[in-house]
Specification:
Length: 437
Amino acid sequence: MNRLRILVLASFCDPETASMPYVTYSHAAALAKLHDVALAVGGPSEANVRRANAAFRTIEVVRMPRLERAFDWCFRKILRSNYDTQVLTAFGYPFSLAFEWHAWRQLRRRISAGEFDVVLRLLPMSPVIPSPFAFFLRKGPIPFVIGPLNGGLPWPRGFRQLENQKEWVANFRTLYRYMPFARSTYRNAAAIIAASSQTCSEFAKYFEKLFFVPEPGIDRSLCFGEARSTGSNAKCELLFAGGLVPRKACDLALRAAAPFLRRGLARFTVVGDGPERNRLEQIVSSLGIEDSVVFCGWLNHSEVLRRMRSADIFVFPTLRDNGAGVVFEALASGAVPVVVDFGGPGDIVYPGVGSKVALTNEEDVVGQLERALAELICDRELLERTRQEGMTYARERLTWDAKAQDTTKILHWVLGRGPKPNLLPPKALATIPAASV
């Protein structure tokens, strides 16, 4: 495909920071292998982006020193550097609009002069943060594309884990529709890229320009698995990796695995830490499975991947996760994922590469997880076949390079240089009874 000249908006894009800044950088860097990418970033990200030395044509630094200092102080002191809070999205709203306003003033003459073919906003990923750029470019001269967008997953009722973590700000999410630029952003965008079934559902009225590209991605170099003990007498290695917070529901994984742990058929490793750890250790004791469960605490990323490559099954029954990065890594590493069919994990896992269970109620989910584990633990041929299919799927569809190819198809269609890509979501958002949401 022909190289495009893409202006990428990514205010907080950083290869050395976790979560969304890293995801955004990786996506932009993959696009830069295929196209001439001008990356617009905020001042605090400049040094790390330049140090990473990706193939960007230019790095356009949008400086807002006073606002950046204010944001950094509030993020560290008030939000305690917590990326896993919805308050961060609401808090970042005015800063995001300010970034785009400054970027427009800095780059509008070059846009009008024909230096770029298209503008792509990668960050923020939340659909509740609108884009002034969509309004500025409503009459051209070049199209505006937004996404991948992710977020807005409902909080299902009937799970103590979610009731213990739901944040007050979630009750005000729908107010974004009345904020400046909220409607013009999606009306004027030439294409909307959604990263989840939930987001596809939210923007269904724009189906003619709506595309699904999964979030986040993985490096192709991670797509291999180490030798495992596959003999019929070998214990099955189960793994959970993630923050030990209520919504991750590690307790459901332990309860489902307990019968196999007590019979000596499996071992369970828990990687991660958090406020739930003491309670989880008490559950392990009450279930009588202390000898078969190990809590490792936080490990560095390379060690987590090593553990995944030696695990047989990745048990991850998170009840509310927009993304599925750790599931991507499990698939690439050969740890067969067993997940709940909701949110990011439910979008990514399908029969043949893993198992997913319906989001019903706490006791029923435990029973479904136990049956899914029994099927894999007791049939090593099925386990190995599923493992190989999952690794192939990760190599072919879930890498950053694959993501950049899908995004390229969308941009070519927007510019009239290629056919409309057939990038449909894997499923519609699982229907939850109205009384349960």
